[in-house]
Structure formats: C-alpha cells, structure tokens
C-alpha cells in the first residue's frame, strides 16, 4: 500500500489553488474561443426564432382584430333583431287574466262562454262582487273585468295598463258577451291623460333610464379603468343617477309636458333608483367579463327586458318565459313603477321599487365579494389594459378632466336625443294632414261631404280630395299615395265604404277605421272596409319592416366604429372598402336569415332582401365613416341621432308619417331609415313596386359620404394606430401612488414593533423582528421616496403604449417590462 504524501503547508496550499485557478481559466478561455462560432450561430438562430414568433403573434393578432370587426356586429345585431322579431312580430294572447262578477249562476255561465270562445287566449275566473273585480283591474291583477247585472254587462279595462292590452282583451271578450245576448257597455277605469294619449311616456322614460344605466360601461372599462375602483365608482354612479334623473324630468315635464308637476318627486326617485340599480349590476358584470360586459348587459336589459316590460306589448302576448323575467328584470320594474305613478296614482309601485333596490344591493355586494376574493387570491393583480385611448379619435388627452368629460358627453347626449326625438315625435300620435280621398256619385257630392267633415273634425286632421272615380281612388290607396278612400253611400249601396291599406301602415289603417266607423255610426250605417293589402298573421302589427331596417342600420355603422377601435390598420379606404364589401353581404345574409328561416317573420323574398340589405349596409357604413374620421368613437352620437332617433319617427314604420310632427314628416323622403323601411315594405308586400326610388336615396347617401371621406383623407390622412399619448406616465404616477400606500401600510407594524422594543427586551441581530424592521426600512427608502431622479429615470425608458397599427408591429412595452422588473412595470391599477 502506497504511503500518502505529506500534508501541504498553508502557503503551499494557497499557491496550489492559485495555479489551479489560472489553469482552469486558461482552459475555459480556449474552450470559449473554440466554441465562439458555434455560440454566435446559436444566437443568430435564437434571434431569428424570436422574430419569427413575434411575426406569427402579430399576424395572429391582426387576424383576430379583423375577425372582431365581423364578430361584434354579428353578436349585437344577431341577438337584438332575433330577440325583437322572434317575440314581437306576431304577438297573440295567452292566458290573459279576466275576472267575472255577478250572480253565481250568471257569472258561471259567462265564464263558461269565455272559456269556450277563447280557451287558450283567456284565463277566466270569478270573483265575489263588482268592487273586487274593478280593484283587480286597477291593481293590474286582471286585464279586464266583466260585471253582469241582469241582461246588461259592463266591461272594465284600464288604458293606463297599455293600449295594446286594452284593445286585445276587448277584441277577445266583447264578441263572446254579445253572442250571449248581453247589452255590453265599456268603461276605462284608468284612462290615459290627454298629454300622453298613447301611453308611450312611460315606455320612452323607461328606455332612457335603462340606457343611462349601462351606456357608461360601454367605454369606461376600455378607456378609464381607474374609475372602476369600488370606492371611486360607487359615489360616481350615485351622482350620475342624479344627473340623469334631473335630465329626464326636465325633458318630460317642463319641455314636453308629458309628466305632471305633481309627479315630480316620484319620477325623480324612480329615475335615480333605476339608473343606480342598473349601473350596480352592470358594474358586477364588467368585473366578470370586462369590456364585453356591455354585451351581456344589453342582452339582459334590452333583448330580454323589452319583451318582458309589458309596455311595448302586453306580457300576456309574449312567450310564457317572459312572465318570469317580468318579475325580476330591472327594465320591467322601472316601466311598471313609472306606469303606477303616471297613470294609477302610485298604486302598486312599492313592489317594483323593491326589485330595483334589491338589484342595487345585490350588485354592490357581489362586486365587493368579487374584489375581496380576487385580492385574496392575487394581492398583486394584473394591471388593466387601456384599449381605447380616446373617444374623439385622436391622441389620448393628457388631462383626465377632458377624458372624463368625453365619457360623460357620450351617454348624456344619447339619452337626451332618445327622449327629445323619440318621445317628442311619437309621444302623442294624432293625424295631421293625412291624405284621404272622398268618393261620391259626383265630385260635387264629395266636396259637400268634405266640407261637412272638416266642419266637424277640423281642417288639420285630414287632407281630403274629392273624386267620383272609385277605381282611381283604389289605385291611389294601393300605391300608398292616399292612406284611404271614403266611399259615400249611393242608391245601389246604402253603406259607407272604406278602401284602406293595412300593409301600407298599420297605425294609419287603425286610425281611419276608427274615425270613419264613428262617421258611419252617426248616420246609423255600417262601415264596409275593403282592405287592399291585409297584413299576414306573422306580422299582425306591421313592425317587421322596422326591425329588419333596424338590423341594416346597426350593422352598417357598427363595422366602422368597431373597425376603427379594434383594428385601426383597417381605417384607410383602400382597406376599409374591400373589407366592407365582404362584410355587407355577410351581415345582410344574417339579417335575412333571422327574418326568414329563424323567426318566420318573413315568408320568401330572401334574395331581394339580401341584395337590398347589401347596398343599405354599405351606404350606411360610408355615412358613419365621415363622422368617425372627424370625431372618432363619438361619431355614434350624430350617426345614431340621424339614423335611429330622428329616423325612427320619420320612417313610417311603427307610427304613420302623418301622425308625427311635420318636421319629421318632411324627413321621411330623405333619411336612410325611412328609405330602408319603405324598401323592405315594398319587397315584402307590394312586389317591389317602389324599391328603385328608395334605393336611390340610400345610394345617394353612400356616394356623397364616400366623396366626403375622400376629401377628409386628402386633408388629413387617417391614422392606422392608436395614440396613447402619455399613458405610460399615468401608469408610473399610479404605481408610485400605490407604492406609497403599501409603505404606509407597513409603517403601522414597524411603529408597533418600535414601541414594543422600547418597553421590552431588544431583539437579537438575527431575530425575525430585526429582519422585518430592516425590510420595512428598505421599502420606505427605495419606494416611498418620490425621487425626481428616479422618476426621470423611469420616464426616460423607451416605453410604448399598446397600439394596433400596421401589421401589429408595435407591441405594448409594458409586457416586456413586467418580465424584467415587477417594480418598474407600467400599469393602471386593478379595480380591487
């Protein structure tokens, strides 16, 4: 066995270690020198792979943002038009509650007769006395009440519960009572006021309040997410609700005189609570799904809310599901509360206010619980992105004041226009210069009759024309040049005749039927109605044309608004025109499928509707592009104001053009919405007789708008990427503010520790308390101090705000910064 060498001295050991170190260093250098070419190649390969991956990500994002231009309108238009057409194109009564009072045997006989006449439409029950029956109608527990006294019957209804409901239930009950040989009288126990004869005041007030509740969240999350912090947003929502309450009262009371002054306090209260409750629920939805929360909100508030509201159509004519949603959704609660105050002296308002109050509390509690759980799971949450730098389309404002002003202007303008245009034009529909031909055996007889009619009715309701040619009058009614023709009695025909056109406009058809039936009754004669174009059962109220046109309008402007914000790269005309040329056929096909196969509102005419829709959507997109070039996302205000809020009353869709103020009647010949409605009506009901002239109106709007866009682009080329301005500085300031708050939170434990050490034994150097104190001091010295040099060092870094520009080449710099240092990330604070 070999003898081990003697141990080295300390000096020899140091020299040996030094020699080994030099040897190892020389060996590593030579090895690095030999592998240098290989390392360089690997580096080049890594860089190339990184560039390829970045290019692939940019391409995928470009494709995704372009797809969003199609997907977002598809979701919005699809759910709204499907929801409205599917439920309201052919409403029919289903289990409409009716009560009968009288002697036991007589009441039972009438109940049996009503059940036999309308077994599915009516839900008939008996009550003890007439007082109970009337109370149930007044409390809206029953749609009508029949009180039997001998051979006479009184039918009690409530116009304040809805004109449509009153008309529907009367039409169902009256024939059955008359068949029983009863002498029937009618009584309206809650008639509508003279300043709101159609009961639309509550409906438009309800719609405005609902819009005010969810509209701010459509841009708040993507533009100013710092406002979504719970402690900030709750008082903001309370103030916003107060502003809207004051606004709607100002419009409907002193300006339009729809609301009586005595109802000021309850209307203000309902408006405030309605806006606040919807905002609280929308706040929670935004927490869950982010910026897309507005789509979820619109689905529950508008798509489900309008059919459930019992204001547009009776809830008993909707599918049974909507009776359940009528009890829990905020839109029906707001509408019924307003109806209680405006038409029933506040009867039954409490239960609807309770629904809103519970909704507000639940929304706030769920939001607070979500924030608490999120903070527990992730005390340092991921920063919220800013996707929309500004609503006006330019650089993100450096001042928060201007940014917040634009956030207020957008929903405030929308609510104001909706109330003033829609309610102002459609709140009190009465005939004004409605063209009617009077047909006599001679022109002189017709003129004499016209003079008598104008003496009894006034000269403003109808614009009469005298003729003796019945066939010519009929042709004018068929061509919609005249609303109706009144045929005077002759020796051969001793009855009044009325030639009318229901498909031309249902509201005008109902008016001339009602008024001239009264004229015939005054002469103890019957009115023989000749309906030249009756509406089919699938479109009982003639609203299908309006909803299809609404689909075209929504699809047309959404492609521009969504495209400019989701993918600004698409804004130049060389890209936007081809994109819209693909988008228009796609969305027109969607609307045609919804109207036809999906909802069954239209039978046939698929190709004509698809082709006309392509032209309409493309032209509307060009019109929207003009304002988008000028004021960015705020273009929604003038575009929606022109196309929808002014276009709907002037469209001759839901209400006749001769039953609105003359200003809107004049607009009927010029606005795109009216041209779209008349085009669709002509295609569906009149063999496309006037399609050409109305398509010319749409085409003119498109061509003029396209020329204006060319002019604007020649002066100022369109931007192709978002300009987030000093967003990175905002984030740094917010970061410093958060750091100071964290440091103050740490000062509490440190102060408590210092107090304990002054009275008790000092901790050892290696103890946990000592280490915590040193850590707290480090945080205070490196983060809390607002060092100007450190601020300039942070702000001088090459930061880049998120963009969506040419090929998505500019990526958010903060994503890279976060991976380098969590202390230097650019961020907007979370909502927790």
UniProtKB/TrEMBL annotation:
Residue spans crossing the bilayer: 66-86, 200-220, 232-252, 264-281, 288-306, 353-373, 404-426, 544-564, 576-595, 607-627, 634-655, 695-712
Biased composition (Basic and acidic residues): 9-35, 721-737
Example of a GO MF term: ABC-type transporter activity
Its membrane topology: Multi-pass membrane protein
Entry keyword set: Membrane, Transmembrane, Transmembrane helix
Subcellular location: Membrane
Predominant location category: membrane
Annotated signal sequence range: none
GO CC entries: membrane
Sequence ranges of Low complexity compositional bias: 764-777
Region (Disordered): 1-52, 721-832
Record Pfam families: ABC2_membrane_3
Compositionally biased residues, Polar residues: 752-761, 822-832
Protein's name in the database: ABC-2 family transporter protein
Species assigned in the record: Brevibacterium aurantiacum
């Amino acid at each position: 066995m070999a003898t081990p060498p003697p141990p080295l001295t300390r000096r020899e050991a140091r020299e040996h270690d030094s020699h080994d170190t030099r040897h190892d260093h020389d060996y590593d250098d030579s090895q690095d020198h030999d592998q240098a070419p290989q390392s360089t190649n690997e580096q080049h390969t890594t860089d190339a792979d990184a560039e390829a991956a970045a290019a692939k990500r940019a391409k995928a994002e470009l494709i995704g943002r372009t797809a969003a231009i199609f997907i977002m309108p598809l979701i919005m238009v699809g759910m709204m038009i499907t929801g409205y057409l599917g439920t309201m194109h052919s409403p029919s009564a289903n289990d409409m509650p009716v009560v009968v009072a009288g002697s036991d045997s007589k009441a039972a006989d009438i109940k049996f007769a009503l059940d036999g006449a309308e077994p599915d439409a009516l839900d008939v029950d008996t009550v003890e006395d007439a007082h109970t029956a009337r109370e149930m109608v007044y409390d809206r527990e029953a749609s009508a009440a029949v009180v039997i006294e001998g051979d006479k019957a009184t039918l009690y209804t409530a116009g304040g519960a809805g004109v449509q409901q009153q008309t529907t239930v009367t039409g169902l009950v009256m024939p059955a009572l008359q068949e029983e040989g009863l002498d029937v009288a009618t009584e309206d126990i809650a008639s509508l006021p003279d300043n709101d004869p159609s009961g639309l005041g509550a409906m438009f007030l309800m719609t405005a309040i609902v819009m005010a509740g969810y509209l701010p969240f459509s841009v708040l999350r993507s533009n100013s997410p710092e406002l979504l912090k719970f402690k900030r947003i709750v008082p903001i929502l309370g103030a916003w609700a107060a502003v809207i309450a004051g606004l709607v009262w100002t419009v409907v009371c002193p300006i339009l005189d729809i609301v009586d002054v005595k109802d000021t306090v309850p209307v203000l209260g309902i408006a405030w609570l309605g806006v606040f409750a919807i905002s609280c629920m929308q706040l929670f939805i935004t927490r869950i799904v982010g910026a897309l929360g507005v789509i979820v909100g619109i689905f529950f508030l508008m798509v489900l809310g309008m059919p459930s509201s019992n204001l547009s159509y009776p809830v008993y004519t909707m599918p049974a599901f909507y009776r359940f949603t009528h009890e829990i959704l905020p839109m029906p609660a707001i509408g019924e509360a307003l109806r209680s105050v405006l038409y029933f002296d506040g009867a039954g308002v409490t239960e609807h206010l309770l629904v809103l109050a519970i909704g507000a509390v639940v929304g706030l509690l769920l939001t607070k619980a979500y924030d608490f759980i999120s903070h527990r799971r992730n005390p340092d949450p991921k920063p919220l992105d800013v996707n929309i730098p500004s609503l006006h389309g330019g650089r993100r404002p450096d001042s928060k004041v201007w940014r917040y002003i634009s956030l207020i202007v957008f929903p405030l303008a929308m609510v104001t226009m909706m109330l003033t245009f829609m309610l102002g034009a459609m709140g009190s529909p009465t005939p004004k210069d409605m063209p009617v031909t009077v047909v006599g055996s001679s022109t002189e007889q017709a003129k004499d009759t016209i003079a008598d009619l104008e003496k009894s009715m006034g000269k403003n309701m109808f614009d009469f024309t005298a003729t003796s040619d019945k066939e010519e009058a009929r042709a004018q009614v068929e061509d919609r040049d005249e609303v109706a023709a009144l045929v005077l009695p002759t020796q051969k025909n001793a009855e009044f005749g009325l030639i009318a056109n229901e498909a031309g406009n249902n509201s005008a058809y109902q008016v001339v039927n009602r008024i001239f039936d009264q004229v015939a009754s005054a002469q103890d004669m019957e009115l023989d109605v000749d309906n030249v174009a009756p509406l089919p059962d699938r479109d009982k109220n003639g609203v299908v044309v309006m909803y299809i046109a609404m689909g075209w309008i929504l699809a047309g402007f959404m492609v521009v608004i969504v495209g400019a914000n989701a993918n600004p790269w698409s804004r130049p005309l060389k890209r936007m025109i081809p994109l819209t040329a693909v988008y228009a056929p796609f969305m027109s096909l969607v609307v045609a499928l919804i109207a036809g196969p999906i909802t069954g509102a239209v039978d046939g005419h698929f190709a004509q509707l698809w082709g006309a829709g392509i032209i309409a959507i493309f032209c509307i997109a060009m019109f929207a592009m003009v304002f988008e070039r000028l004021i960015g996302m705020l273009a929604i205000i003038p575009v929606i104001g022109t196309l929808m809020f002014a276009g709907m009353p002037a469209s001759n869709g839901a209400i006749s053009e001769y039953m609105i103020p003359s200003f809107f009647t004049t607009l009927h010949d010029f606005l795109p919405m009216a041209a779209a409605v008349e085009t669709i009506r002509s295609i569906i009901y009149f063999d496309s007789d006037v399609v050409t002239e109305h398509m010319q109106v749409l085409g003119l709007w498109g061509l003029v708008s396209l020329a204006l866009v060319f002019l604007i682009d020649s002066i100022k080329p369109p931007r192709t990427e978002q300009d987030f301005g000093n967003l990175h500085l905002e984030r740094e300031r917010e970061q410093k503010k958060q750091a100071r708050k964290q440091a103050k939170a740490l000062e509490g434990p440190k102060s408590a520790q210092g107090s304990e050490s002054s009275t008790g034994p000092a901790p050892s150097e290696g103890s946990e308390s000592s280490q915590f104190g040193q850590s707290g001091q480090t945080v205070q010295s490196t983060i809390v101090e607002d060092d100007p040099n450190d601020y300039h060092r942070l702000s001088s870094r090459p930061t880049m705000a998120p963009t969506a520009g040419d090929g998505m080449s500019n990526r958010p710099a903060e994503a890279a910064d976060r991976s380098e240092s969590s202390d230097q990330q650019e961020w907007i604070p979370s909502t927790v």
